[in-house]
């Protein structure tokens, strides 16, 4: 099926040049193809657009009306295409980015002012949630994912490792003692993260591959790491949370990292994911590059 827009371009060029061969040369196609495009237009419209002779084309009355419409519509199409194409070259437009709540609040939101100064034509919509969202159905341009990536058509770039650390406040350890093994956790108040299969309210995983599983219990389960962090700092119990959440409290001495007989498990990494596209829009590319620089290279939670 011949492209209708190309047919309109051939028709408008032929009308101004007075011949299909001239229109074909200008548009880089054969005279036979140009003729097919005009024939297809006339067939679709059910009218003749040209009076044709061996020497020159002249517009019919219907052709004159159609030419006026083409001269109005084609520049608008060119403008729209140029605007869309420019977004692949020059970063602009609305960028919708979805990130986990704690990570986004601590490490993404503080980066937005500098990003906006670098790319003033990009407007950022920041969605904060610990629930896994569907990037494509939700209309998000990119997302930050923490943990092992599932098989999906999404593209991904790794930002950083994401180890879990087991910690407690000095006050809690003074009152309840210091666990030395994963088995000792059965005697402690373990604060669980309800959205994790590795550090839930009933089971914690240890070992390089997470193959050492121990039953735990505690008087608080939450679906947000900041809530668990606050409870741990207050001396309520032991937490098993990502390094990026507990690192500041470890540096300040509000929490103490515990060393058990099995190492803490890793979460698989921190990634930025985005829809499959051979060449993503410039607004997506510049944000990904910025996150790689600001998060991947600097890992701000590891700095003093």
Automatic annotation (TrEMBL):
Alphabetic keyword roster: DNA-binding, Transcription, Transcription regulation
Q: Name one Pfam family in it.
A: LysR_substrate
Domain HTH lysR-type residues, every copy: 3-60
| Lipid biosynthesis is among the record's keywords | no
User: What InterPro entries is this protein classified in?
Assistant: LysR-type_TF_proteobact-type, LysR_HTH_N, LysR_subst-bd, WH-like_DNA-bd_sf, WH_DNA-bd_sf
Gene3D superfamilies (UniProt xref): 3.40.190.290, Winged helix-like DNA-binding domain superfamily/Winged helix DNA-binding domain
User: What family is it from?
Assistant: Belongs to the LysR transcriptional regulatory family.
Among PANTHER family, the record links this protein to:
HTH-TYPE TRANSCRIPTIONAL ACTIVATOR TTDR-RELATED, HTH-TYPE TRANSCRIPTIONAL REGULATOR
Protein name (Swiss-Prot/TrEMBL): LysR family transcriptional regulator
The organism of origin for this protein: Stutzerimonas frequens
